[in-house]
Amino acid sequence: MSGISLSCMSTCALLVSQLALAQTPSSVAGSQTQIEPPLLDARVVVLRGHIRASKPILLGGGKTLSIPEGCTFRFELPPGKKVLHWHQLDPPVFKRDEPDSTKHYCEAAFEVGTPVRISDGNGPGRQIGTRPFSPLDSGFWQWSYGYYRMWWTDPIGLEVNYAKAYVSWWWDGASCARKDSAGSGYADWWLTLTGWELLSRWNGEVLGGSDPNCLTYAGWTGGTHLMNQYFPPCSPFAPMYLDYDPVSASGMSDGYLYGYGTTVAWGPGLCRALLTHHNEIVRVTN
Questions:
Q1: Is the four-CA dihedral 34, 274, 225, 18 of positive or negative sign?
Q2: Using an 8 Å Cβ cutoff, are 182 and 169 in contact?
Q3: Pairwise CA distance, residues 249 & 281, whole Å
Q4: SS3 content of the chain, % helix, strand, coil (to 5)
Q5: What is the pLDDT of residues 248-271, one digit of tens each?
Q6: What is d(CA 172, CA 142) in angstroms, rounded to the nearest whole number?
Q7: Cα 166 vs. chain centroid, distance in angstroms?
Q8: What is the pTM assigned to this prediction?
């Protein structure tokens, strides 16, 4: 471990985290830099995901970086349910016992429950709960707005980065969904005070089907790739990388809100071992 003890890793990281929290403006601390709230009705579940293969990402100057394989999990929120948090307890385990690679999968344990506080629901193009005007209002269609968010916290529970996908959609409760692009989109954030910097990002619309009047789902997806060279014990000679790819939110024709996500912390920097991964899926309206 290059002569760095675990106690030093924790102590140095705690000092940096506390300094960042003390220097963070209250306006930022209240909306982005948060201490993780407890969960109500918490339980532990094991989720099965699919393996996202390693992939190259394009950096500035025509350079590329190959990110490792990850585990993509699906989180769901039925109509009438407002929010669920999913806190990953351990790194995913990859299962490759079958000779057929199409049957390979990954799994991980999560603590799931209802938080006592949720992050803000403001998304690109629309504030919380602002219903769009539509001729569909006169029919049997219903409108919903929500998001899926992934984030990481440091040893004191301070949020250090996140990625969110928002979706606004109409649904008939049976077989058809319609997109509402004005309230859909992608957002990300990282705490520069503790060394985080952006490498690349992407985002775009995802639709299920070709008929805009009757889709199986409507949503948005994106990815964010970060690096940290300064959070102890990471350094410019031993940085860590953190990838959100993809982060997707989909509104279904039956009113379900699905979140899909993969996030991986990797690289030679040992500060990645000090971080904890979380998920939330939130229905802001209807």
A1: positive
A2: no
A3: 9
A4: 15, 50, 35
A5: 999 999 999 999 999 999 999 999
A6: 6
A7: 11
A8: 0.83
